[in-house]
Amino acid sequence: MVGVTPTHRRAVHGVVAAVTLVAVLWQLVLIVNGEAVLDETAAKPLGTRLVEFISYFTVLSNLLVAYVSLTLARDPDHDGTFWRVVRLATIEGITVTGLVHWFFLRPILDLHGASYVVDKLLHVVVPILALVAWAVAGPRGQAVRSAVLPSLGWPLLWGLYTLVRGVVADWWPYPFMNVDTLGWGRVLLNLAAIAVLFAVVGLGFVAADRALARRRQSDG
Fold first, then answer.
1. In this predicted model, what pLDDT tens digit does every residue of 120-179 receive, in sequence order?
2. Taking 90 as the threshold, does the pLDDT of residue 201 lie above it?
């Protein structure tokens, strides 16, 4: 990338990793202290709160961003077949996290103080930073069509886990997954729509990666 040295790229990914880790750890502290998440009103036992914390797709997608960003901060050209799936799954996941939050969850939230700040870090700031880092610091040429289908694996596994745990523990992390309220048909339809969204976003990143790579070649 013209004008963007490996040192600059490491710095960009390092900033994303730092902000993401701060956001996740801050949210963890609030969870331990019994602060509300989404529309919850009563604090649960600590063990339950910790399990639910790691069960949120938002937290998992942010942890993936932190892992990927730390890896690229060490080696901005890190590559490999499995890595390409992880990289694409990460940028898909954090993008969907931001979109779902903005259009579906944000209107129902009533958070204040630190909970509000952390919510915006996890759902708005980190997705934007991750997208900017992907665009300006790359690495390019890693978003490939062959990685799109495998990249859907982790959100599908998360959905299956969430449904099973929801039945067992009677807890649903997001309103659009609440089988008790919406019924199985509507929830499965919602999950299918999200899977399609993931695939569309993934293909969009493949196309964008090719366009950015061609632009870099023409500028060079």
1. 999 999 999 999 999 999 999 999 999 999 999 999 999 999 999 999 999 999 999 999
2. yes
Residue corresponding to tokens 């009563």: 42
> What CA–CA distance (Å, rounded) separates 133 from 131?
5
Give the amino acid at 23: A
Pairwise CA distance, residues 123 & 37, whole Å? 13
User: Would you place residue 219 in the very low, low, confident or very high pLDDT band (cuts 50, 70, 90)?
Assistant: low
Side chain identity at 188, as an amino acid letter?
A: L
Q: In 3D, which of 174, 8, 106, 188 has the Cα closest to residue 196? A: 188
C-alpha torsion sign, points 12, 14, 17, 23: negative
In 50-186, which ranges are E strands? none
Tokens of 92: 């898909």
Q: How far apart are CA 89 and CA 198, in angstroms?
A: 9
Domain spans of the chain, in order of start? 6-219
Is the omega angle on the peptide bond into residue 6 within 30 degrees of 0, that is, cis?
A: no
Q: In the numeric block, which tokens belong to residue 203? A: 């293909």
